[in-house]
Amino acid sequence: MMTDVPGIGPRSPLQRLESMLASELERLGRRRDELADLGDALLALRSQVATEDSPVRLGVEVLEQPVAAPVLGRIAMSVGQVDSVFLDGEVGAVTDVEHASHALDRARDGQRQRTIYTRAVIDVADSTRRLDALRNAGQEQHVVETFEHEFAIFGDEVVVTPSTWGDPGSAYLVIRNPVLIGAFQGWFDHVWSATPTRDHGAPVDQRIVELLALGYKDEAIARHLGVALRTVRRRVAGLMDDYQVHTRFQLGAALAHDDRA
């Protein structure tokens, strides 16, 4: 079914494909900009250190997986907030039962935890119960379809991240340099502000409103919520009727000024 464009008429399949491609290119452009900012921070750091580029001099140490758990546990217990991104539900820290147990205890004790999970984590059957327990203990959870890298930020003291880009199973890097920590924190905050909370049984309309406010298109909303595209379009049409608006742009403006958004 073709989509009507106000004042223009129905869009052809080619126009719809071109629009989808433009949206994807824009998304990739934003990600490239984020990586470029991280690269700039690395260059700035290198300009500040002495000529010998040893890891210790740069404030970066390698931590092998077999000895990581107790070291990371001690770091995590010493800070009031932990911000994390997890990529894979079957590899890396998110699969460590001891790690999950300690995170649960810290959340219950009042530590603020903001965690972004990819769909690859959410869709693993064994993850649901563990993530629900963490959320019920107070962990704030957001969801992103995909992400480039995994890391955890412990207060303003340490960043821990796999040493191989995109590979949660590789050895860890422990980063203590404040320039790099600030770069990771900025990256996390940007993604956090642009991603929805993990679904916790809220009504579909409420979830659609949240995703619309974040700029999600109908197709992405349907995929995120696991419902049919026609269901999303029907609910969006109902919201437009509720707000007495005629375009998605007008609906977005209305939601921005409404407490439900």
UniProtKB/TrEMBL annotation:
Single GO term (MF): DNA binding
Protein name: HTH luxR-type domain-containing protein
GO biological process terms on file: regulation of DNA-templated transcription
Organism of this sequence: Janibacter melonis
